[in-house]
Amino acid sequence: MVSDIKQVPESPVGKTGTEDGNPGPHNPGPAGVQQETPAQSVTPEAPSEQQETPSEHQEAVPAQTAKNTRSLSWLLSRTRIWKRRALILVLRVSRLVSLGIRQIRPGLRFLWRSLLRRWRRSLEFRTVLTTLLLAVTSFAIVGAYLSNQIANNLFQERLAQAESESRFNVKQVQDTFDGAQVTDQSSVITLVYDTLTAVEGRGSVIQRRYVFEAAPEQTKPRNRWVESRASDQLTVRVIPPDLRKAVQSGGKQQFWASTQFPVGNEDRPGIAVGNMVTFNGTAYELYLIYDLNTAQQTLDEIQNVLWAGGAALVLMIGAIAWYVTRNVVSPVSHAAVVSEKLAAGQLQERMVVKGEDEVARLGASFNHMAASLQEQITQLATLSQMQQRFVSDVSHELRTPLTTVRMAAEVLFDARDDFDPMNKRSAELLYHQVERFQSLLSDLLEISRFDAGAAVLDAEPQDIFQVISHVMEGAAPVAVEYGSEVRLNSRQKSIIVEMDSRRIDRILRNLLLNALEHGEGKPIHISVAANHDAVAVSVRDHGIGMTPAEAARVFDRFWRADPARARTTGGSGLGLSIAAEDTKLHNGWLQAWGRKGAGSNFRLTLPLRQGGTIVKSPLQLEPADIEFPGAASERQMLVLDPESGSTMPSQAVGGKPQQPDAGAGEGS
Length: 668
What we know:
Its EC number is 2.7.13.3. The chain is α+β, with helices and mostly antiparallel strands. Among the domains are: 86-111; 161-302, PAS domain (Beta-Lactamase); 354-455, Helix Hairpins (Orthogonal Bundle), CATH 1.10.287; 456-607, Histidine kinase-like ATPase, C-terminal domain (Heat Shock Protein 90, 2-Layer Sandwich). The protein is 51% helix and 16% strand. The strands form three sheets. An eight-stranded mixed β-sheet has the order 12-13-11-10-8-14-15-16. Strands 1, 2, 3, 4, 5 and 6 form a six-stranded antiparallel β-sheet that branches. It has a two-stranded antiparallel ribbon with strand order 7-9. Strand 10 and strand 11 form a beta hairpin. The longest helix has 66 residues, at 56-121. The protein is elongated and about 170 Å long. 22% of the residues are buried.
């Protein structure tokens, strides 16, 4: 460490050491304490020049070392502090950036979704945006092509001028050098300077500069009086190396290359044209640099004009597309709005018709169609109301005489044993047909309530298995009559559903009786399953089945697949229609599947809570087999024995239910 040594005045106690200023044998010890020998003593009363004191050099070096140590420690501490502050600043900035991104991302996502929604729903927006995109793409392609062609043409023009002028100027320089009669250094320098200055300046169109450099590695004697010259403080570094190699090896040929050279604080594009010239037996490289800044400015102005004109043209195309599309799409949008209002029941809505063009004729035709539809719908609504009122009135009027007729039929039926065989048979037929007539009348009254909108849902939480058990018990006599076995398959023991138990009971009873009637004595399987938002009940028979077309019409009123088929169980032909209406009140699904010779399957799907929606039914409509999905050990079954007509619980084990008696038959 180098330290400064300052001269300080001698202290009153004198100094100790040798004459040359170096400390004597009495140097400070390791602890920096001055030691004293027996031969020397220092007293305050008699100061002497022989008294030992630290030298100036010994005082300055430790002081400077301590000062440097303190400076170094202070610098390290300040470095740590600033490093910690920089880290904190970086963390805060990154936190702010991440927070900004999180806040901007929802807005960008909302904007993107709005654009997609607008794209899907607006023909006008889609047409205008597509037109703009195509116009921008076309202009970008055409503009890039035109700009490239203009740039190439300008460059080729400037290059041809530069080559022509270079040949002429190089010939003049070579002629001047060949005819020069100079021998001293100053004359050579003056001649070269004047000749090159004459070459420099403006050409016919573009400004010209030069670089004059002695060729390296020459075998002939060289004139060392002229090494290099250049205009505007240029150097040979602005010349591309490839161009120099070509000029050095090309002899009298002329070469060119694109380059950049500094002018003030900017770099300008240019063309460097190189040739070899000789002077006094020495070969020199002469490069003429032509400034292309004016051509570049011209090209930039042309490109700016192209971009400005293209932007204006794109805006004009967009405005034209918007105007044309609006004139075409507006009537269509208006027609869509009017049609939506017509579909909502506002039959008096009409389109505004202007002019006599195709759009006006379309509007007139649309209004005519709307008027015709309004008239027909009004007629149908009036006829439907008259039919509903007629059915309701007739049904109500028939209840009183039908009650009287039924009472008389019951009296005759009870006394049929006292009649002769013909009258006995007549009493039995009268009793059964009156009962069937009363059932038909009840169904007609129920249908009239549905049509009038007077049906009300009385929903309350209840276990659906109780309703199913009640339906199975009620259908037991019919099952015994047909010899069909009814089985209930379920993985749950209890499913609570908010429902109108009376209407669900009627739906399931209609489905089960329909399956028994068409099941041809084969087993009937009732399956129950539930998910998080719905419960499904399917009634599967293996009888005559039906086609998909028949399954699509099975819920129509009074519809029968075979009108000539005789009914053995009676019925009004309205049971499935009423079941469909009851299902609609529950906001549920009632669907049918069938196949000729393979039976049919009816599936009822209900939401677990009133007002809920169904996403997916827990059971499939088209049954894969008669087995209920799930492990056999998890299935709970109720078996309706056709012989005894009773419902018995059984636990399925290994795919076969273990039953109390043999009359229950084999498990499904």
